Model the fold of this input.
Amino acid sequence: IGLPNSFQQSFDAENLFYWTALALVLITVFCSVRLRDSRLGRAWIAIREDETAAAAMGVPLMRTKTWAYAIGAFFGGISGAYYASFKAGAFPSDFYFNISIFLLCMVILGGMGSVWGVIVAGIILGWLNIEGLAVIGNKLNHNFFEPVFDTTIEVPKYQFGIYGVVIVLMMLFRPTGLIPERRRKQEMEEGVSDETLFGTQA
Done:
């Protein structure tokens, strides 16, 4: 039947999807920060650093890992439902291995364990993926390849090769990422010293 004319004029699908995506991002960031600072989040960090030591300190490994899988699957399901609604369907061709490389590049570029670092890296790589590489390619062709070699090159065609180079360079020269987690930055640059135990009897 379709929507009445008044609803057709007021209903803007693009704005609806935009604000929905923004709300989902804000909710996810809020939950990630709160989880990181919670008892469960500290247990995850302990398991990441040293699983044996975490178990010795009483952290239930199986239950804590199960919570990580469950919460990750929950947010993944929400994002998948949003993506399927936006695309009016979900197809295997939308999830090639290249997408995994793109997401891995976001994490490595931003910094493992850093919520804000991954957000910044996602914004940078998202811009590069949509228009940044094309803009850079046009400038390179205009200022270098055309005058020197009398040819042009399609930079976006090699985007995943470029992302692979970015991953390698980050792992070699800045393994902590653009905005590293505070503890990981201390470990890489200063070292984390053991806290002094007071009142301990010999």
Remarks:
- Residues 115-149 form the longest helix (35 residues).
- DSSP finds nine helices and no strands in the chain.
- Residues 96-191 form one domain.
- The mean pLDDT is 80.
